[in-house]
Amino acid sequence: MKEFKSMSLADQVFAQLERDIIMGVYQRGDILTELGLVEQLGVSRTPIREALRRLEQERLIEDTGKGSRVLGISEDDLLDIMTIRQHIEPLASYYAALNLDAAGLEELQNIVDLQEFYYQKNNTERLREMDNQFHKVICRLCGRAVITDTLQMMHRKTQRYRKSSIEDPNRIGGMVAEHRAIFDAIAAKDADKAAELTARHVNNAKENMIARLKNNG
User: Which of 164, 182, 168 is nearest to 78 (CA)?
Assistant: First the structure.
């Protein structure tokens, strides 16, 4: 492991392993051992052990007695997460519309404008960053801690499939347009319309992710 600063060592080991599992660096069925991770990451067993315990609580791995088997995010997991998002994420947009202030409006406007700019430039990496920022800012603007914490975990666990979806030329234009429509509704403080458009947006994303998972694994 390279440099650890603000977060605890165990937190950073957990974050890296979680990201690597979710993004497919470790495949479903791979076995992780404390000794192997110690050698790979260059840290002691204590933060490794703590990270593995938390990963097991997140149901990303399971203990086999001879190591930890990677579970990752299955098709059923993805379907369940996106279905839950479809019910919760509209609430974030609803409350964001009600709570919107001038600073939040400017921030969200800037993200949507940049997303359209990067779409014209066909810059998928920056589009993915703007997609993350769009949903993150709406979560913050909604002002509801339970909604925010729930959605942030779900966004993190689906990032591999969100990345794949953004790289789909048949989906990306629709996503950018949907974000603009959601922004317009939030900017107009039309909470009901913002929630309706968000539910439709998440459903479209879910259908695309599931289709790509079936086709590409």
Answer: 164
